[in-house]
Amino acid sequence: MGRALREFYKGGFWHVVNRGAMKDSIFRSKDDYSFFLYRIKESLKNYPVDIHSFNFLPNHIHYLLGQSSDEINPSKFLASVHTALSLFINRKYARVGHLFQNRCTIKDIKDNDHLLNISFYVNLNKVLEKLQGFDRSKIVQAEDLEKLLAEAEKDPWSSYPAILGLRKDGITSPDFILSLLSDDMEKARQEYRRLAKEFIVSGHFLKTRDLTFES
After folding, report:
1. 3-class DSSP state for residue 107?
2. 46-88 pLDDT tens trace
3. Domain end among 77, 108, 139
């Protein structure tokens, strides 16, 4: 049986995840991340999609993508950047074989509330992973969470700083996500930061994770 066709359409939103083959690392150095950011910027010139959120971790990649034209859908963009990254990594480290475990996991997002939560989930994925590494017999201290959130605001491989207006990365399209919170962009950024923290503290990320990866 052949692979099921992915359905893309103008005005749609998708959460996209891809993992390293055999759970191995995709990125091994800062230069690897930098190359990928460069390739994304170049590919957006030919395959313009809206990247509402992204986060690149050592062994997996998250995006929240939108399609803004009839002609270009996210599959063309993803094929372009992931092929370029695979060739670069294989050549640089003299490796062979697939860089990614499978083709991307793609989830169609139709509800605006879930869209906002997916944006939090993508942008805070490193924070969530680090929290999982804490001693589960102890309560996570408020200062630990604040430290992790402060690190996220400086993360060069995530769209979180761009959404908060802390930098422009030439990749992230933050306006639509922020418009779900307020027409005033500064108020929207402040509310996004507040709700991002609440997303973790409330444990709502668990429901979002389950909805994201349900079959």
Report:
1. strand
2. 999 999 999 999 999 999 999 988 888 899 999 999 999 999 9
3. 108
Contacts of 111 (CB under 8 A, 6+ apart): none
Question: In which domain, by residue range, is 46 found?
Answer: 13-108
pLDDT number for residue 2: 46
> Within the chain, where are the H helices?
30-46, 74-92, 112-123, 125-132, 142-152, 160-163, 175-179, 185-201, 204-213
Residue 158 in tokens:
């995530």
- The Cα 107–Cα 214 span in angstroms is 9
Contacts of 87 (CB under 8 A, 6+ apart): none
Number of separate domains in the chain = 2
Chain-centre distance for alpha carbon 39: 16
For the segment 111-127, what is each residue's pLDDT rounded down to a tens digit?
888 899 999 999 999 99
Percent of the chain with pLDDT over 70: 88
